[in-house]
């Protein structure tokens, strides 16, 4: 799979005849909605879990020193809460550019708190993309994140803003919260170093 998945995404789904499409955010799309949307609602998708296993060459790192950002991995029986946005199909030009570093659009059912369901799209970076970094301990991931920065800002800001947004959604994500806590420890240790 090429480094830049933008053109692949443009041919994956047809939006012909559609006035709006749902897209699910589980990472930066929760806390940074830099696109117009018709409505947004908290939602869950089943059998997926967040992992900081994707490299970021364009937002929270650089090609020479990639940061670590989220993707989803399949875990049967699990559930991932995030934010669903109903957008005009034109918005995908922006989203495909934003998520171009290895993410592909997949279709999935979204479940809302009131029990209703819609089908929509979610950007997932799978292990065959060129920016994939893969598993590491949460402590190693935190150390990597603490040392990374890219055009969108410091890598740790991604984690801290996400953790805050997840608490607002009443979502407990052990992986994200463990990395957040390691980052806070690292900050404290750095502040105490003379
Ligand atoms: C998402 O937020 O849904 C995709 C991953 C990211 O951009 O952080």
Spell out the key features of this protein.
binds succinic acid, 194 residues, five-stranded mixed β-barrel, globular, alpha+beta, Hypothetical upf0131 protein ytfp, two-stranded antiparallel sheet
CATH topology: Hypothetical upf0131 protein ytfp
The helix content, as a percent range, equals 25-40%
Structural class assignment: alpha+beta
Count of DSSP helices? 6
| Mean pLDDT value | 96
The Rg value, from CA coordinates, equals 17 Å
Strand order of the largest sheet: 1-3-2-4-5
Low-confidence stretches: none
Query: Which range does the strand content fall in?
Result: 25-35%
Largest sheet: 5 strands, mixed, barrel
Basic shape: globular
Specify the CATH class.
Answer: Alpha Beta
The structural domain count equals 1
Would you list the SSEs in sequence order as H and E? HEHEEHEEHEEHH
Report the span from N to C terminus: 46 Å
Multimerization state? single chain
Bound molecules: succinic acid
CATH-level-4 superfamily name: Gamma-glutamyl cyclotransferase-like
CATH architectural grouping: Roll
Compute the number of strand runs. 7
Q: What does the model show?
A:
It is a single chain. With 194 residues, the chain is an alpha+beta fold. The chain has one domain (6-192): Gamma-glutamyl cyclotransferase-like (Hypothetical upf0131 protein ytfp). The protein is 30% helix and 34% strand. It contains six helices and seven strands, in the order αβαββαββαββαα. It has helices spanning 6-10, 28-31, 91-98, 138-146, 155-168, 174-192, and strands at residues 21-25, 39-56, 67-87, 104-112, 117-124, 149-150, 153-154. A five-stranded mixed beta barrel has the order 1-3-2-4-5. Strand 6 and strand 7 (153-154) form a beta hairpin. The radius of gyration is 17 Å and the shape is globular. It starts with 5 loop residues before the first helix and ends with a helix. The mean pLDDT is 96. The chain binds succinic acid. Residues 25-29, 69-70, 99, 123 line the site of succinic acid.
